[in-house]
Amino acid sequence: VAGENFDQSPLRRTFKSKVLAHYPQNIEWNPFDQDAVNMLCMPKGLSFRTQADDRDPQLHSFLITREDGSRTYGFVLTFYEEVTSKQICTAMQTLYQMHNAEQYGSVCASSSCSMDSLASSIDEGDATSLAKLQRYNSYDISRDTLYVSKCICLITPLPFMQACKKFLIQLYKAVTSQQPPPLPLESYIHNILYEVPLPPPGRSLKFYGVYEPIICQRPGPNELPLSDYPLREVFELLGLENLVQVFTCVLLEMQILLYSQ
């Protein structure tokens, strides 16, 4: 388990993640920092879900700044896949049995009333809500399907967010589609790693993803630096008033710290 979150139910806990594979194995000018990439791909750790939970894929980005000031950009798509290991499913069931036993013990220790009197004091509506809550936050190996989080990540020298996002989404669709893509998955990964060049300054580049072409553009020497992040998301996250305040602080050259979950 990652961190001390044993008070949470097992499905709400986070577990230690690890890098399963990365390609290429090493690049001289851009060495692979396994610990940093692992932490930044899954900042909250590995998580489990069931069919009752929301499992929509989520995309986020990160930035690694080295001591010499050089930067590396990472773009991550997190999704959930079904756990096929019987051992892991059994372990989750055991965690829930232990958790429920601890919760039941603490309730009985702190309450002098019996379970019969407790049940009689809950009306039918509350009982239904309680049952729904228990159903949502529970795991039964004979009834539920267990899913675990997994990431696919692209690490690039420039922040081509839109191009990376489109490629990762297409790759994810190919992985989860009932019908296989036109070519093996390895060929698309090999193509973007070894055959798609970095566009020269002031030029755009069109390359093919799994299903659709993808375009990325690089600013010229006398243009503003590449800013491929949608401003709409900034307005949605911060709101107009907060964004004006942040912009004012930038103009006044104040130190700014954004803190969030």
TrEMBL record:
Keyword annotations of the record: Guanine-nucleotide releasing factor
This protein's record includes keyword Thylakoid: no
Pfam families: DENN, uDENN
Domain UDENN: 1-261
InterPro entries in UniProt: cDENN_dom, DEN5A/B, DENN_C, Tripartite_DENN, uDENN_dom
Superkingdom of this protein's organism: Eukaryota
GO molecular function, one term: small GTPase binding
Stored PROSITE patterns: DENN
PANTHER family per the UniProt record, alphabetical: DENN DOMAIN-CONTAINING PROTEIN 5B, PINSTRIPE, ISOFORM A
Name of this protein: DEN5B protein
Provenance organism: Dicaeum eximium
